[in-house]
C-alpha cells in the first residue's frame, strides 16, 4: 500500500474532538510509539542546527488525520526532555487540547485574540512538568479574522527564551485559511500524512497552498493509523 489512497474509504477515529487525544507519550513512556515520538523529535532537531526554531505549527490536509494527536504527544515528548513547551490550540472550530489535558476552556486563544484576556491569565499549567497549554477558548464565529490580527505573534514572542518551544495545533489546510495565516507567524510547519487515508491530490493541494504563503515546511510525519493509538507509528521525513 502506498502513502496515499486515490479515493480514501476511511478516516481516522474522530473521538479526539469529543474526548481529547490519547497522550500515549505520557501514559506509555516506554512503548514503541513513545520511542517513535522521541525519534521524530530528534529528527526535527536536525532542522534546527542554528537553534532558531522556537515555534512550530502542526497541520494536515483534511480533518481526522491525526494532527492533534501528534501535536499533543510531541509537546509531551519535548517537555519530558526538559524543554519548556507551550501547546497552543489554534483549532478554534474543533478544539481538543482542553479535553486532552483536562483543563478549563473558559479562557483561551479566542479571548486573547479578541482582547478579552491576557496571555498571563489564560495560560494553564498541566500535570506534566515543563508543559503549559493555551486552549482554544470559546469557539468564535470569526476564527480566521481573529488569527488574521496577528496577535498570535505576541504569544510566540512571549515564549522566546533559549529553552522554550511553542507548538501550535491548527485546522487542516484544505478546510480553512487558518493554517495559511498561522504559518506566516511560526518558524516552521510539520505536515501530518496518514498512510492509506490521505488523498494524494488533496495533500498536494494543501502543500502547494502553504508554499504560496512561503511557509517554512520542515517536513512531514507519516501516521500509520490503526484502530488503537498504541498500534500507531510515526515516521518523520524532511523536505
From TrEMBL:
The answer on whether this UniProt entry bears the keyword Repressor reads no
> Does the record carry Nucleotide-binding as a key word?
yes
The UniProt entry, under InterPro entries, shows: Bact_polysacc_biosynth/exp, Wzc-like_C, YlxH/NBP35
Q: What pathway annotation does it carry?
A: Capsule biogenesis; capsule polysaccharide biosynthesis
Give the UniProt keywords, A-Z. ATP-binding, Capsule biogenesis/degradation, Exopolysaccharide synthesis, Kinase, Nucleotide-binding, Transferase
* CDD domains xrefs: BY-kinase (cd05387)
**GO MF entries:** kinase activity
Instruction: Report the NCBIfam families cross-referenced here.
Output: eps_fam (TIGR01007)
What's the name of the protein? CpsD/CapB family tyrosine-protein kinase
Q: Which organism is it from?
A: Apilactobacillus waqarii
Amino acid at each position: 500500500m502506498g502513502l496515499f489512497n486515490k479515493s480514501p474509504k476511511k478516516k481516522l477515529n474522530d473521538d479526539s474532538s469529543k474526548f481529547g487525544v490519547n497522550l500515549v507519550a505520557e501514559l506509555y513512556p516506554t512503548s514503541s510509539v513513545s520511542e517513535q515520538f522521541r525519534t521524530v523529535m530528534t529528527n526535527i532537531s536536525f532542522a534546527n542546527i542554528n537553534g532558531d526554531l522556537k515555534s512550530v505549527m502542526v497541520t494536515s490536509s483534511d480533518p481526522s488525520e491525526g494532527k492533534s494527536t501528534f501535536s499533543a504527544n510531541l509537546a509531551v515528548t519535548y517537555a519530558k526532555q526538559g524543554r519548556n513547551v507551550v501547546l497552543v490550540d489554534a483549532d478554534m472550530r474543533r478544539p481538543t487540547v482542553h479535553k486532552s489535558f483536562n483543563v478549563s476552556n473558559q479562557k483561551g486563544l479566542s479571548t486573547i485574540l479578541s482582547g478579552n484576556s491576557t496571555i498571563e491569565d489564560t495560560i494553564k499549567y498541566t500535570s506534566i512538568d515543563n508543559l503549559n497549554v493555551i486552549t482554544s477558548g470559546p469557539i468564535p464565529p470569526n476564527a480566521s479574522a481573529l488569527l488574521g490580527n496577528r496577535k498570535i505573534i505576541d504569544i510566540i514572542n512571549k515564549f522566546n527564551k533559549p529553552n522554550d518551544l511553542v507548538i501550535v495545533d491548527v485546522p487542516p489546510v484544505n478546510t480553512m485559511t487558518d493554517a495559511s495565516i498561522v504559518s506566516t507567524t511560526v518558524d516552521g510547519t510539520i505536515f501530518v500524512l496518514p498512510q492509506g487515508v490521505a488523498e494524494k491530490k488533496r495533500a498536494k493541494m494543501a502543500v502547494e497552498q502553504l508554499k504560496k504563503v512561503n511557509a517554512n515546511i520542515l517536513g512531514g510525519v507519516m501516521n500509520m493509523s490503526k484502530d488503537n493509538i498504541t498500534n500507531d507509528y510515526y515516521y518523520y521525513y524532511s523536505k
